[in-house]
Design a protein that fits this description.
With 129 residues, this protein is of the alpha+beta class. It is built from 4 helices and 4 strands, in the order H-E-E-H-E-H-H-E.
Length: 129
């Protein structure tokens, strides 16, 4: 997976152009070659977008960690927010993981989602669009 700043910007630009028309909001967390994303919206729109992500050649080893019906959006202010883990205090990661690096495969989907919610709440490190 190309995790260069240009590739990440291209993914975010495409998301921010596409998502509003589909009613999609969410957040993308990245660092160390690992990506963790929350997508929210209508069931059909989310399922369609997830299928597109799975087929996109820019992504590999895509794994669904958590899926649930929601009563209200958690990332409603972001067409696609971003968190660059190299710019955060690693103590945040240690609250949710044994190591100070992102490894969503080593924790439950619920824990990964809680991490994303905390990162979203720390708005100074998130690019809003």
């Amino acid at each position: 997976v190309d995790n260069s700043p240009e590739a990440i910007d291209a993914i975010l630009t495409q998301s921010r152009e596409h998502n509003p028309g589909c009613g999609i909001t969410g957040i993308l967390c990245y660092g160390g070659g690992v990506f963790l994303q929350a997508i929210e919206g209508g069931r059909s729109a989310v399922n369609e977008l997830y299928g597109h992500i799975q087929r996109d050649v820019r992504h590999k080893d895509v794994e669904l960690l958590h899926y649930e019906e929601i009563a209200e959006r958690r990332f409603g202010g972001w067409t696609m927010g971003k968190v660059n883990l190299s710019k955060i205090n690693h103590s945040i990661l240690l609250k949710y993981s044994e190591k100070p690096e992102l490894d969503p495969y080593s924790v439950s989907g619920t824990v990964s989602f809680a991490l994303l919610e905390e990162l979203m709440a720390t708005a100074s490190i998130i690019g809003r669009a």
